């Protein structure tokens, strides 16, 4: 079974700007372990945390970065998958 990857657009931006989860942990002021849980959807990114990440990416030149695209689009598309299963 293939492992489900979450936050694909965010992960792509992290690769583009040479960031790792440790960097994201510092940006949102959380431990690496807490951040890892968020990336695996065992805990949720809150809006202020998502905003900090987006602002940081924008400071690096990512003019396209939005909270919706990087954090919430995936949530809604996953809900649609659940509806299709029913």
Give a short overview:
With 86 residues, the chain is mainly α. The protein contains five helices and no strands.
Could you characterize what this model shows?
There is one protein chain. By secondary structure, this protein is mainly α. It has one domain: 434 Repressor (Amino-terminal Domain) (Orthogonal Bundle). The chain has five helices and no strands. The relative contact order is 0.14. The C terminus is likely disordered.
Keywords:
single chain; 86 residues; 434 Repressor (Amino-terminal Domain)
What's the arrangement of secondary structure elements?
Layout: H1 8-16, H2 21-28, H3 32-39, H4 47-59, H5 67-85
Helix pairs in contact: 2-3
Encode the helix/strand succession as letters. HHHHH
Tell me the structural class: mainly alpha
| Number of individual domains | 1
Distance from first to last alpha carbon: 21 Å
CATH topology: 434 Repressor (Amino-terminal Domain)
- The radius of gyration over CA amounts to 13 Å
| Helix share, percent | 55-70%
Mean pLDDT: 87
Biggest β-sheet: count, sense, barrel? none
């Amino acid at each position: 079974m293939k492992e489900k990857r979450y936050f694909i657009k965010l992960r792509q931006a992290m690769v583009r700007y040479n960031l790792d989860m440790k960097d994201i942990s510092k940006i949102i002021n959380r431990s690496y372990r807490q951040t890892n849980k968020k990336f695996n959807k065992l805990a949720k990114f809150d809006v202020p945390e998502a905003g900090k990440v987006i602002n940081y990416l924008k400071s690096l030149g990512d003019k396209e970065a939005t909270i919706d695209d990087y954090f919430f689009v995936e949530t809604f598309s996953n809900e649609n998958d659940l509806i299709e299963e029913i």
